[in-house]
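hiii, so i know i said id send this last week but things got crazy w the move. better late than never?? heres the sequnce for the chain we talked about at the cafe, plus the structure i predicted for it. fair warning i was half asleep when i ran it
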Amino acid sequence: MTDTTGDRPLWDHSAGELAAGIRAKDFSATEVARAFLARVEAANPALNALVDVRPEEVLAQAADADVAVAAGGDLPPLLGVPVSTKINTSQRGYASSHGVAAWAGAVAADDAVCVAGLREAGATLLGRSNSPAFAVRWFTANDLHGRTLNPWHPGHTPGGSSGGAAAAVAAGMTPIAQGNDIGGSVRFPAYCCGAVGLRPTVGLVSGVEPRGAEEFDSPLSFQTMAVHGPLGWTVDDVRRGLHAMVTPDLDDPVGLPVRPPLGEPGRVRVAVVRDAGVVKPHPSVNAAVDDAARWLAEAGHEVEEVELPQLGEAARLWSLLLYQELRTMMSEIEMFGDDAVRDSLASSFRAAAQIWGEQPTLTDYIRGYARRGTLIGRLQRFLGRDRIVLTPVAAEPPFEQDADLAGDVRMGELLAAQWPMQVVPVLGLPAVSVPTGLRDGLPSGVQLIGGRFQEDLLLHVASAVEARAPRSRPALSWPRSG
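okay and structure toks below
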C-alpha cells in the first residue's frame, strides 16, 4: 500500500475519500495518520496553526481504528479521519487554555459534548488549533501559543477566532476542524484561508462542557448566539463533520432533544443582499457575489437581488447585546488576557459607542432582545423552507494583520465590514462560508444564510458554488515564522 491515491497524497483527500478508503482497505488508518502527521511536520512550522500535536496518541488512535476495520461489522462514519479541536473546547487530557498563559495547565478530564460526538464517530483527534486569547478577536495570536499566519499571505489575518482551524484545513493538515462562532469565528477564518465553514442553527450542536468541569455562568448572548461548528476543505467534509457533531443534549439551555430530520433539497430561491444599508462592499467582494449568483443561476436556482434592511438592524443589535455582556467579563480579561485582546476590546467598545452611545441603558438592552425576537420571526417567514440569502462574508478582503490594533477609525471600519458575520448570531440561523477562488492572491468567498435547521439546504446550494469555483492549495512559499 502507498500513501497516495492517483496523483494526490493522502493529506489532500477529503474526509469521505479517506473514510471510504479505510473501510475498503485501500490504505490503513495508520497510513492516513502518518501522512497527516508528516504534513503537519512540513506545514505547521510556517503557520503555527496547530499548537498541541502528540504523534504517539494519534498513531494509537489510528491503530485502534485498524483493529476495528479488521474485525468487520458496522464502522463509525469518520473512522480514521483526522480532525482537530480548538483550544477553547474541552478534550480530555488536553489543556482548555483559551490562549491564556495562566490557564496553560487547565487540563480537561473529559470531552465537551461536540468533541465526544467526533470521537464517537471514529475520528482521529489530531491536535489542538490556535485562537486568540478568550476567542474574541478576528485575528489569531496570543501570548501562550504565539501567532497563526494565513497560509496564503503572512501579512493578512487567517481570521479569528478559529484561525488555527482554518489555516490547518487550508494547508492540508486536517480535512475537518472543530471551531466555534459568536461573531464569525468559524465563517470568517474559513473565508480568509479559502476553506468551507458552517455555523449551525443555535441548539443543533451542543456546546456543553464535560460534567464535573468548573461551571461558568455564560452571559445570555453566549447561550443564544455561540455555537460549535465544522470547518473543512470541501462542503462534503463540513457535512460529515456536522453530522458527527450533532449531539442532542438537554443539559444545553438551548439544546434540542432530537436530531432534526434531513431535507431533500431541490430548486432553491436565492436572495442576494450586498450591503444591508451598513457599508458598500469592496469591488473584489462584489465580484465574488456576482460569481456566486451567476453560478447558482446556472445551476437552476432562482436568483434575485433584494433589499433586507432587517439584516443591517440585526448587525447593529449584535454590537449592543454582545459587547454589553462582554463588559461584564472585563475584570477577568484585564487580569488574565494579553495586551492585544485588551486593546482590541477597548477599541471595539469605542466603535460600538458610535452606534449606541457611551452608556446604553438597561432599557436599550431589554428592548434590543425584544427586537431580536421580532427580527427572527420576520426573517424566518421570509426564508420559509426553500429560500436562502446570499451575502458577502465580509465587506472587505481578508484584513491586514492586527488591523484591530491600528486605531479607532480602523476598528470602526472592521466592525462595519463584519456586518454579515454579526447578523447570523443575532438571528440564531445557520450560515455557511464557501470559497469562490482567489483575487489578488487572497481567498474570496460568499456567505449563504438559511432558515432554522435548514443546514442540508445550505450545503446543497454551497455544493453548487463549490462545483464551479476554482480551488487550489496554498503554496506556503513565503519565509517560515520563527
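btw The first helix runs from residue 15 to 23. thought thatd interest u
miss u guys!!
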